[in-house]
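Progress narrative, work stream C.
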Amino acid sequence: MHGPALVGWLLVALCAATGGYCLLQMRGEPPGPGRRIAGAEALMGWGMAVMAVPSTVLDPRPWGPPAFAAVFAVAAVRALLPARRGAGLPGHHLHHAIGALAMVYMALAMMTGATGGHHHTGAMAPDRMAAGVPPLTGVLLGYFAVYVVWSGLRLVSMTDGAVDGRDGRAAGAVGAGPAGAGRPRRPELRHAWRLSMGIGMCAMLLTL
C-alpha cells in the first residue's frame, strides 16, 4: 500500500487481528453458512493485512497483484453463488462479494501502477500513484462509508441490548455444564470486527 507508513502498519494490525478473530470463530462454528461466512471474513482480513503492508517494506510486484486478483475473484464467485440461490444469509454473501471484488479492483490498480518502471525503489512515479478509476473508486468508497455508518449504528443498538440483557443471561448460564463451556457468543464483538474491516477498506480505497 502507498501512503504514510504509520497508517499502513495500523491497518496491518487491525486487519490481521480481525482475520485472526474470524478464524477462531470459524473453528467454533458448526458446519454450515456460519462457518463459511466466518471463513470468508478471515480471508478478507488477512488479505487486507497483507495488502496494507507499506510498499517500502514489502513490494509484492510483479507476482503479488495477479495472485491477489485471482484469490479474491474466486472468493467473490463463491460468495455470489449462495446469494443467488438464496441460501444462508444473502445480505452477508452479497457484502462479501462486493468486498472481494473491491480487493480484485485494488489488486488490478496495483498492477496498473506497476507499469511506471519503479519496481525496486518502494515508490511509484507521481503520475502512476493514482492507478484506480476515480468513478469506480468513488462508488466503492460510498458503499463502504454507508456500510460503516450503518454498522456503527447497529453496533450501538446491539451493545445497548447486550448490556440490558446480560444480568438475565448470566443467571441462566450458571451450571450450564459442558455444552456452555466453550467460547461465549458475542454477536456485538463480531459485528465490531466487521465494522473495523469496513473502516480499513475505506482507508485502503483512499490510497488509490
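Work stream C, second folded protein:
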Amino acid sequence: MKWITHQAAAVGAALALHLPPAGVAAACVGAVLPDVLDQRLAGLAPTPRGRQKVFNRIHRGATHWFGWWLALFLAALMLRLPPLELAVLTGLGFGGLSHVALDMLTPQGVPLQPFSRKGRFSLKLCATGSVGEYCFLSAIVLAVWFFMGRDLLHLVRRLGHGGFF
C-alpha cells in the first residue's frame, strides 16, 4: 500500500476510536513507521545501488511483523502513563498495527514470524498502487467523512484553540 492509504486508514480509525489529537497524529506517524524503519536500515548500505538491494531484501520483514506493534499498543494501555505519553504510544502502536493489516491485503503480505521470510500471510485483495488500492482509499475517506464529519469539525476547532490532548 502507498503511504497515503496507510495514513488515511490509521487516522480514520484513530478518529473512530476517539483517540485524542496527539494519538491521532501518532497513529499517522505509526502508519508509515514500518516502511520508514526499513528505509533507514537499508540506508546503512554504502552505495545507492546497495541501499536499494538491501531495501528489497528486508522490506516487509521484521518491521512488518504484527507482534511488535501489538506489544507497543498493549504496553501503552497497561502502563500508567501521563495522558500525552499514553496517547502517543497508543497511536504509534495502533498506526503500526493498521500498517501491517493493510499490507496483509497485498499479494506480498506480511511475515507470520519476526525474522523469517518463509511464512507469510496475504489476502491478495489489491496490489500496491493499483486501482483497487485507490478504490479502497476512496472508501476510507468517504466513510471517515460520512461517520466522522461532525467530529472532524469539532477536532479542527479544538486544535484551533490549542487543545492537543
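The mean pLDDT is 90. No further action is required on this item.
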